[in-house]
Fold this sequence. Notes:
Helices cover 34% and strands 18% of the residues. The protein is of the alpha/beta class. The longest helix is centred in the C-terminal third of the chain and has 16 residues, at 215-230. The termini are far apart.
Amino acid sequence: MDLRDNNSAKIRLSDGRYLAYKERGVPKEKSNYRIIFVHGFDGRKERDFLAPQEMMNKMGIYIVQYDRAGYGESDPNPKRSLRSEASDIEELADHLQLGSKFYIICSSMGCYPTWSCIKHIPNRLAGVAFVVPIVNYQWPSLPHNLTKDDQRKKNYWWMTMTAKYVPKLLQWWAIRKTSSTNDPKTTYFTSKDLEIIKNIPGFQGFSPVKYHLNSQLSQCFLYYFLYMSKLSFTL
């Protein structure tokens, strides 16, 4: 069942929650590619996927962008798990009649639900594209020259180990109200990156804005690093 609220379409999931989404591109009946986009940590259905309409028309792309549980207009999921993230995506695809197989494009922290899809519903995936994906620095197949100068490596290692051995500590750190400032540094971006990023609607990544995570977003944060501590896929 689809509902309209605040100009957004919503579906009702099997557990009673509502998931908000928006559709872009060509009509799905005429599409060559049916894609679900999974947003990142501070994303939402209105952001991130910047493909121009002309390109989508030319290639026959139909894309669905949705608010993950607890984001935007979607209901929170108090029982969130890695499996539930994949189930939300599968139910969305079924409600919208995307067919037996569909594509997924994911960005940043939106990649961990996609890893879950690869594990739990691989038969539904026609293809997957990871944009700035989560990685495990312990992967033996990850080239050393790609990570040796990564300034975030030690921080990610600390958070991954904390998620594995002391998960409640990491969740506390994620929702703390002290020192909860967005990092305005642009160290990791090229001039072209900055040009593109600053044109993203609603982007505040370079503003020293205070933010406090609610329980749903802190769960995402925790699952992100907990999953990385256990991920055994070989790239």
